[in-house]
């Protein structure tokens, strides 16, 4: 039996909804409006939860399944919120051969999430990336753009403690 995955609850504000409705009203009659609407919606909310997709569907008349299809097809969109601290582990060749896969796996275990997810408290999100251009420091991870290099699995606890 699969355990129910805990997720960060949707917490959109009235101001965000008003911004989204304004964007939709400005763009909905243009040809190909869905992509720019989704891009602006993600700028407003940081991601595209089902609640936001539903608003877009209701306001544009575009079926929800089409909106979901576009949001899941293009890699620029995310259906999951990002944490206050966005962890990105490089899985490019240089980092991977020096153990970044082990670091990524250890982070998933310690945080209790898989790549692309956010911890239930909204503090950390985890993603894999390809080369960040710091191959000489391999293996590398970044937290909100701060680079940590020459990592071992034993370094993870001390690094995460800086963000607690």
From TrEMBL:
Coiled coil: none
List of residues binding [2Fe-2S] cluster: 90, 95, 131, 135
Cofactor note: Binds 1 [2Fe-2S] cluster.
Cofactors, names only: [2Fe-2S] cluster
Molecular function GO terms recorded: 2 iron, 2 sulfur cluster binding; metal ion binding; oxidoreductase activity
Domain of life, source organism: Bacteria
Tagged with keyword Iron: yes
Record's keyword terms, sorted: 2Fe-2S, Iron, Iron-sulfur, Metal-binding
Family according to the record: Belongs to the complex I 24 kDa subunit family.
Protein name per Swiss-Prot or TrEMBL: NAD(P)-dependent iron-only hydrogenase diaphorase component iron-sulfur protein
């Amino acid at each position: 039996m699969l355990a129910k995955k805990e997720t960060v609850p949707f917490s959109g504000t009235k101001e965000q909804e008003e911004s989204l409705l304004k964007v939709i009203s400005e763009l909905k009659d243009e040809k190909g409006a869905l992509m720019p609407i989704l891009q602006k919606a993600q700028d407003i909310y940081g991601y595209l939860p089902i609640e936001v997709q539903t608003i877009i569907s209701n306001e544009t008349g575009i079926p929800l399944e089409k909106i979901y299809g576009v949001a899941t097809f293009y890699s620029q969109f995310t259906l999951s919120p990002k944490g206050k601290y966005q962890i990105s582990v490089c899985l490019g060749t240089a980092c991977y051969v020096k153990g970044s896969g082990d670091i990524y796996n250890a982070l998933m275990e310690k945080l209790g999430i898989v790549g692309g997810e956010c911890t239930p408290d909204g503090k950390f999100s985890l993603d894999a990336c390809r080369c960040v251009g710091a191959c000489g420091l391999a293996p590398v991870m970044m937290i909100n753009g701060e680079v940590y290099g020459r990592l071992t699995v034993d370094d993870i606890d001390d690094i995460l403690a800086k963000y607690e």
